[in-house]
Amino acid sequence: MRILLTGVTGYIGRRLLPVLLEQGHEVICCVRDRQRFDVKSFNHHLQVIETNFLDTDTLTRIPKDIDAAYYLIHSMASSTKDFEDLEKICARNFREVINKTKVKQVIYLSGIINDKRLSEHLESRKAVEEILAGGSYNLTTLRAGIIVGSGSASFEIIRDLVEKLPVMIAPKWLKTRCQPIAIRNVIQYLSGVLAFEKTYDQSFDIGGPEILTYKEMLLGLAEVRQLRRFVFIVPVMTPKLSSYWLYFVTSTTYKLAINLVNSMKVEVICKPNQLNQWLDIHLYSYKEAVQLAFDKIAQQEVLSSWTDALSGNAMESGLHRFLQVPTYGCLKDTRSRKVAQESRTLDKIWSIGGDTGWYYGNWMWGLRGFLDKLMGGVGLRRGRKNPRSIHAGESLDFWRVLYASQKEKRLLLYAEMILPGEAWLEFKIRDQVLIQTATFRPKGIWGRLYWYSLVGAHHIIFNGMIKRLAS
Questions:
Q1: Has residue 322 got a pLDDT over 90?
Q2: Is there a contact between 241 and 171 (Cβ–Cβ < 8 Å)?
Q3: Phi, psi of 107, deg, nearest 5
């Protein structure tokens, strides 16, 4: 089959793509920015087109001769104010363009909406489902609650809380019940309903075999990790305080934290159906799903992560806008050093950040990350997906990878921390010499004051860093 896949750079899309290719389908991937999508590891049955469902002019690139389409576009990590409107616009534009193709089936991954009082996020997903249902194709909707898998936002937040806090004073929404599902089961459902006519024009709630409270999920993960943890629930923590609690303790962004808290106050339990029996899917228990997630982490096989989503609006139009590092009106710190062993230095550069750290003055990097969190930024806690490999589009602590080529011996990063300007950090090796360049384009007088106030700290950090990298 010829399949259109949207949201391919997102958490679910990245995991569904290899499954569809393994099944022999030809997949057309819709991406807003080719730079964020690494196609080298996939086979020749893959086609990539740049589209933005908020820009109808780009949708003319979608071919007419496709058999099915997946709608996996979600904006949970974007602005807390306007994501509902953006999702509706995307859904309408998708519906109109798909109506002009030969598509017989559209598959949409939504959220469980069986509570009368829905969060804004779940209301938005319900509205999107209603919009998609108005198309001339057959719509199959799968509704999931909490997805448990390495790299998923909910799993990583629960993991952060359990591993960092022996005692938790937690908000009352930890008593809310939900039906978590393993990411492996989600992918099985998504691929299983493809061209399965029994599921046409129907919606199905998908969840694991257990109904748990969030407190039970925390303690369940602690049991898998063989950690003793205590959770005390207090009724005085408001949604706003709860969001700050998640934001400062875990690696999540504030925008994502507040959307998650609003969703976690709502009970999400599946309405019974026979879909797993029709598709012969074995449902993993919560603890089994947690163990599978940690197995992937231990094997360094995390295919996708919630951190792949851009943290701000500046880069929404694409990474390519930032690939050309500016020179006019910029302040620079450039250092060079002869390397002892080129391959060794390159390995160090490709391992920078995350658990490895920044090779010099890690406490200073940590302080900068803490201050960024205080100001509402991403901080350092996002880390990196893999300790030794990195690709364009991925997050790296409070940086975004713009370009990564070991063949060209060049790594270019763009700052996603809160700054009075824009910042780039570049490493490249030329003729056995490592060139390390920090570039800052200030915004107004505050930007210049910021840079000059840190000249001393930059000298210490950047000088120490290049010495360690080159040695």
A1: no
A2: yes
A3: -115, 125
Q: What is the mean pLDDT of residues 310-338?
A: 76
In DSSP notation, 307-319 reads: GGS-SSSTTTT-T
Query: What confidence tens digit (pLDDT) does each residue in 288-317 have?
Result: 999 988 887 766 556 666 566 655 555 555
Task: Please state the three-class secondary structure of 112-136 as a single string.
Answer: CCCCCCCCHHHHHHHHHHHHHCCCC
Q: What is the mean pLDDT of residues 231-247?
A: 73
Buried b (16+ CB within 10 A) or exposed e, 231-253: bebeeebeeeebbbbbbebbbbb
The partner residues of 404 in beta bridges, in order of sequence, read 411
Chain mean pLDDT for the chain: 85
Residues in the chain: 471
Cα 7 versus chain centre, distance: 11
Q: Which own/partner contact pairs does 29-34 have at CB distance under 8 Å and 24+ positions apart? A: 29/5, 30/4, 30/5, 30/6, 30/62, 32/316, 32/318, 33/9, 33/318, 33/319, 33/320, 33/393, 34/320
Name residue 458's amino acid.
H
How many angstroms separate the CA atoms of 250 and 304, rounded? 18
CB 237 within 8 A of CB 171: yes
Give pLDDT, residue 307.
61
46 strand-pairing partners: 27
Contact criterion met (CB below 8 Å) for 414 and 400 = yes
Distance CA 1, CA 27 (A): 8
C-alpha distance from residue 209 to each of 181, 282, 283 (Å): 8, 10, 6
Q: What integer is the mean pLDDT of 33-51?
A: 74
> pLDDT tens digits, residue range 63-89?
999 999 999 987 544 444 566 788 889
Measure the CA–CA gap between 166 and 381, rounded to whole angstroms.
Answer: 19
Mind listing the domains of the chain with CATH numbers?
A: 2-299 (3.40.50.720), 322-470 (3.30.530.20)
Could you give the strand order of the β-sheet that contains 105-111, starting from the edge strand earlier in sequence?
46-50, 26-31, 2-5, 68-71, 105-111, 138-144, 202-206
Whether the per-residue pLDDT at 90 is higher than 80: the answer is yes
Average pLDDT over every residue of 99-118: 85
Report pLDDT digits (tens) over 381-397: 777 877 788 888 888 88
| Single-letter residue type at 334 | T
* Look-up of token digits 């700290």: 457
- 156-192 pLDDT, tens per residue? 888 888 888 898 887 787 888 999 999 999 999 999 9
57 three-state secondary structure: helix
The phi, psi pair for 178, rounded to 5°, reads -150, 175
